[in-house]
Hints:
The protein has four helices and five strands. It is an alpha+beta fold.
Amino acid sequence: MKKLESSLTNMVLVLTAVAVVMGGILAYVNHLTEGPIAQQKEKALADGLKTVMVCDDIVVAKTDTVCRNDAKGKELTYIIYQIQDAKQQDLGAAVESTTGGFGGNLKVLVGFDPDGKILGYTLLEHAETPGLGAKADKWFQKGEKGDIIGKSPAEPLTVSKDGGQVDAITASTITSRAFLLAINNAYNAYKATPTTDGVSGATKQKKEE
């Protein structure tokens, strides 16, 4: 077999062939893993919804996506899951909310009851400093120092350093502010979104009052 002549054309052809083969392999691997990854994400979301709504027997009755600009003009997306129990009774909603933390995006899934009070929350994504900002997953839970469970963000939640009544994570005020902003924004998105009965959370609450 004749040895391939070393030339620029042949080198380009070889590199192109390698790139095509590697691209095909990557596409095949991606195809194989696409299904399991999607299933894993669905399970993580389902578990997260049960956690933040503090109920195992739930049904997502409706899903809404809301886009809003923050104070800096950046577009933020909120996903609102209207939740019912097995008897089709309204339990409130779970909202995905993202803000910029100290190290990067901080995404929170927070559950609200029909009156807008916080049932629970879980962190879906964060890039905060391990041991400091990363404590947000537990710091604001029921019984902890920054407990926000049962509170309503109708009056925006803020850290005590800013005149609020929520204790910030020790040495992580920026993360705490970002977290509470995500919660406040989630509440605002929820109350402005029509529930399954066609009435917004805010209007429903006013009617009950």
